[in-house]
Amino acid sequence: MASVHESLYFNPMLTNGVVHANVFGVRDWVTPHKMALLVLLSELGRAGPQLGLLERRRLNRLLLPLLQGPDMALSRLRKAIEECCPHLAGSVHIRLKLMAEGELKDMEQFFDDLSDSFSGTEPEVHKTSVVGLFLRHMILAYNKLSFSQVYKLYTALQQYFQKDEKKDGADENEMELTNPEELDGKMEKEELDGPLREEEIACSGPLSQKQAEYFLSQQASLLKNDETKALAPASLQKELNNLLKFNPDFAEAHYLSYLNSLRVQDVFSSTHSLLHYFDRLILTGAESKSNGDEGYGRSLRYAALNLAALHCRFGHYQQAELALQEAIRIAQESNDHVCLQHCLSWLYILEQKIFDSCVLLEHSVNKSLHFGLPYLASLGIQSLVQQRAFAGKAANKLMDALKDSDLLHWKHSLSELIDISIAQKTAIWRLYGRSTMALQQAQTLLSMNSLEAVNVGVQQNNTESFAVVLCHLAELHAEQGYFAAASEILKHLKERFPPNSQHAQLWMLFDQKIQFERAMNDGRYHVADSLVAGITALNSIEGVYRKAIVLKAQNQMSEAHKLLQKLLIHCQKIKNTEMVIRVLLCMAELYWRSSCHTIALPVLLQALALAREYSLQYLASETVLNLAFSQLILGIPEQALNILHMAIEPVLAHGAVLDKGCAMFLVAKCQVASAASYTPQKKIEALESAILNLNEAKTYFAKVDCKEQLRDVLYFQARLFHTLGRTQERNKCAMLFRQLHQELPAHGVPLINAFK
Amino acid sequence: VIGGAGAMAAAAMVAAGGGDFSDLREIKKQLLSVAERSRERGLQHSGKWAAELAFALEPLPLSELPPPPVLTEEDARDLDAYTLAKSYFDLKEYDRAAYFLQGCKSQKAYFLYMYSRYLSGEKKKDDETVDSLGPLEKGQVKNEALRELRVELSKKHKAQELDGFGLYLYGVVLRKLDLVKEAIDVFVEAAHVLPLHWGAWLELCNLITDKEMLKFLSLPDTWMKEFFLAHIYTELQLIEEALQKYQSLIDAGFSKSTYIISQIAVAYHNIRDIDKALSIFNELRKQDPYRIENMDTFSNLLYVRSMKPELSYLAHNLCEIDKYRVETCCVIGNYYSLRSQHEKAALYFQRALKLNPRYLGAWTLMGHEYMEMKNTSAAIQAYRHAIEVNKRDYRAWYGLGQTYEILKMPFYCLYYYRRAHQLRPNDSRMLVALGECYEKLNQLVEAKKCYWRAYAVGDVEKMALVKLAKLHEQLNESEQAAQCYIKYIQDIYSCGEVVEHLEVSTAFRYLAQYYFKCKLWDEASACAQKCCAFNDTREEGKALLRQILQLRNQGETSSTDVAAPFFLPASLSANNTPTRRVSPLNLSSVTP
User: Fold this and answer.
1) What is the average pLDDT across B360-367?
2) Which sequence ranges form a coiled-coil region, renumbered to this chain (chain B) (predicted)?
């Protein structure tokens, strides 16, 4: 329909948008801030010989950031100069004052004089130096201004100067009472401006091109490295909208808005922003003819690829695959191998959700190396190592591969990948059950200085690797019974990765797992049960497993068994070997709790074989403990002792405190059982060594506060003392036992039959 | 009714009230007086609208003509200043006009004072955009006068010293400051105080974005409301309701109004009833041969029908009347486009945009031209601009989709087609486009849904059924494929235009073979005979006929000849006709 308002028609030469499209290419504009810099430069040239060497050096160091940085207020600029050379600051201020409070011709004269610095036999400024280029840019930009623009610039300069003056004035006159009349007028005005004001505060004045660019790059890097320091999603979006309102051609702002929407998991607006960004990018790509048609086609490919990434992130795998296919097809048509490699990596990530695809990955790594894409290659190696580790490939080869990729990182100083690699190593060592190694790697990452000098103030970045490492650290501490330390780490995690941030799910899971373990140790099964729901939400497999454990602890054997059966089948299907072994162990425990040791044995052997095959050493030793216990019950304690010797070492070296205690307890039991057939002399020796072992077990149990186990140990110890006829010690143990027994509810399972 | 004090304006409201059209003379009187009052205040468009409408009514005898406005004491005091300022205003010297009107107290002079200041600010803003000091400053050029105007007007508003025109100006200022909610309230108030002022109604139309908002407005119950409702229904694409309203207005006695005629034509254009729209436009041209408004819509219709000579005549005619009008440029652009001179067409659309950068249609049309020139990046730019001006421009979304489809990115363009579909849920073109994309992506289930839906909402191009049939064919669902072809042929024959449709032969060929397989010899041979009528299927048809003859001769004894009806419409199509109302379609779990 026809536009409503008459004003739309009165000016037939109205121009907007169309004319300005070509203006956009010009980057340099004379602004008041830049004029202040020009004044500084000319003063510098004039005062040249009188300046001391130190002052001169300080000023030179100041100049570069000033020339490249965004515009700033005059007061800030003056302060910066004052720090270097107070004398010069004063003269700059006077020159500016003269210009701003004088007439237009003062400014014109100033620009006319500027070019003098190039002339003469020995010019003050070389034409090709940084300062020279800046001067020439400015002179050129000034000369291009039209009549009215020159006047506008001059008024802008006046405002720039007056704002500063006013600020100074306000500081001085703060205490002075304003006359009531003025106050009244002000009040009224403010009242009327209510709703408008709010909007304006958000605007906080126009941003220059450079400022906008700086703002965008800063926020983007913060989003990547340290989300908490970036603006909150809502306010960032407000700023971006503002920026876009002023300049809809600013494509990068759309991309940042896409990233911002990802933060809040908003599919709709993130898709919208992403596509808008690429639509805009295609324009600028076509405008800058540097790459010609190539540049334009390129953005198309990456547009499709990014769309795939977006869908993948939101879990729309089918859609992601379609988008990826499209990206691959276009990339193939235009022979863009680099893009194809990116596609390949994404393809791997997508396929991973469906089935294993090592072949793809190997291919990707080879090709990426060939095309000189170290980042992709190394990411590929990392994923490959991860997958191979799950698939049970030889550990030494994996570590070798990681070492190779580390070489690549250091060579290309890919600091982000170095972090990832260390986090990966931590995880792999934990998978293999070497807690000390894992601990060492985690500490390495945490105490390492980042290569990136982006945030000078902060040494570490808030990336995923840090979250992973910290989580592992928390769990490792909890395993050793240092719960205070663990909760301290978790507290730190909560601060660094607030609950709505991207990596928060990691610590949430670990937090709940640790709480679960503690609840189980204390025998507060209802608490553990309530935690299961939370764990399931974050990791369904883990959740089901924990549910089974709770059921087992509550003596609901058949339900637990049913659940475990299902879980076993599922895990075998998705090839989650670690979980398979854990489930098998759990099932074996169910069997021996129901006194079916003969059935438990083959299950345990199966678990053992798997654990050995995948070199999951910690699980292997736990299986051996279970096995030994079964043998003990089946009446072959000598055999049990034999295999225990094999397992006890790794358990003591790397195991959790609870497991250490259980292991020692079990050793003691076996010793006693096998002592039955010994000669009296030997028997006494054996029993005494068993008592020592029990003492050790006691200390371990005390560390993690496992009262039930403590009670059992005490009972056992009392019996042993009794056999040895050491009444005093026996009575002491018995007393302690009695105390604990009164505290705790009666045991469901006969004492001797429990190993855990 | 006499302009002047607020009390008199209130009297005007009472007089205009009623909402019925029984007293056309009274209405005419009101229109004439409001046209005069608008002109006095420099509101030319509202004045024009009222005058146009008044012209459509019977002339009044001398005795009944509205008396010249009575001047109040205040008016008399300001008369000299007003007269001087008005002439400056007419010459577009707004600052000068405002200067001489300072301190005037009468309503008329005060309004002109404020309005000059507003227009001066607007003019400066537009001039400023050329001279800005940098790219980022470009969007920040503001009408500096707006804030002051708002402060002053809101003071007056609080003191209830604003008349209908003043309220209207206050609303405009608020809208320009993006204070939409406040603006709506003020416009509603303006419509209550002075219902005859069309400008306020029109501004309201622009601010109301959906039917829900309309429901919650308390509007004055006058005959002007009918015009407003008709207009806003057209805006909100509620064409049926709009047409009803306009018809009742015509019945009430406005049959000669060119405004109403043009609005009806636009409404028909919006629902793509091309023939009706064309005939109405031709009628309009006869009544008002020098009219330029809405001619761009007319040219779009001519373009769609490829009526070259008519379009050429229109273009030349308009060019003679005024070549520096947005509509003229648009018509010429269409003309060149029809002649496949796309560079020139794009040039004219650009010119239209220079004349009025807020003229939305030109961006989209320019995008189409760039598409024709295979300049996809420029096309994308143009479409994006169109969307920026109006997010609800479905043609721009559709155009973007097409661009990406041409770039062979079927998945990527899905998003754009979906957007277009959301805006026009009952437009078959978007659905067919969506279906094609899904087909390319090998998502046949989704594609089937789209085609079926496209058919159900009334397919314009009649291609949805063929495509659906082919899909069924691909999926070996021969039964459904045959049904689709049958429906397709029925559709085509019922329309009466067989000539253009290439796919008819395909349909007959498939049906012939289908019946042949089902051993329905009569139907098969009927279809095969139809096949013979087309060049590309003639041989196949003949071969099939021969085969049928052979098989028939063999099985003569066994088969009992039941004369089955042609096409089997009773058994196949009767129980399967799609209902017009289909459940909302769920294309995919994720439709951003």
Assistant:
1) 87
2) none
